[in-house]
């Protein structure tokens, strides 16, 4: 019986190493464009969270995992973005709740006009449900920039994240 379990363990190792080799190969192709450092995708919004790389990947993962998608549009040289990022990354409850989302932060605009319901400003945060509908009803407190949040609005952003998750449960 021992030999049999050795054989199955060995096969498992082969499968794992093949999968890793495949990933490594895929990576070298990408890295020629720009070297990928660990956790670059978070851009400081939560280094221990799993961030998607592209809008397309994020939509795919939201649909297939049945998790809502949270998209943060920001710019590295925008003081408002930087200020929001700091409180977002340091807010323990938000970081915990964020694990229930597919996450994407973007420093460029997509061609999808649905992601800019009232304009292309930063920072702005939008939620998309697993049916890939933009939740335009989940807004911040500013009537001229519905999806903008200031650092002082962090608790509102937290409750909006809860709202995005809650409506999910009732609708599905």
Automatic annotation (TrEMBL):
Signal peptide range: 1-21
Main location as per UniProt: endoplasmic reticulum
Coiled coil: none
Domain of life: Eukaryota
GO molecular function: dystroglycan binding
Cellular localization per UniProt: Endoplasmic reticulum; Secreted
Stated family: Belongs to the AGR family.
Protein name: AGR2 protein
Source organism: Malurus elegans (Red-winged fairywren)
Taxonomic lineage from the root: Eukaryota, Metazoa, Chordata, Craniata, Vertebrata
């Amino acid at each position: 019986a021992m030999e049999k379990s050795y054989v199955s363990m060995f096969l498992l190792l082969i499968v794992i190493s093949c999968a890793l080799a495949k990933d490594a190969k895929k990576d070298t192709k990408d890295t020629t464009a720009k070297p990928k450092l660990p956790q670059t995708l978070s851009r400081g919004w939560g280094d221990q969270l799993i961030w998607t790389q592209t809008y397309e990947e994020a939509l795919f993962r939201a649909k297939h995992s049945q998790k809502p998608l949270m998209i943060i549009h920001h710019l590295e040289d925008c003081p408002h973005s930087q200020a929001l990022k700091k409180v977002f990354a340091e807010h323990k409850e938000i970081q915990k709740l964020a694990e229930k989302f597919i996450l994407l932060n973007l420093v460029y605009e997509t061609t999808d006009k649905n992601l800019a319901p009232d304009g292309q400003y930063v920072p702005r945060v939008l939620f998309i449900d697993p049916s890939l509908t933009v939740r335009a009803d989940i807004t911040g407190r500013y009537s001229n920039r519905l999806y903008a949040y200031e650092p002082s609005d962090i608790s509102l952003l937290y409750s909006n994240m809860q709202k995005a998750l809650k409506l999910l449960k009732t609708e599905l």
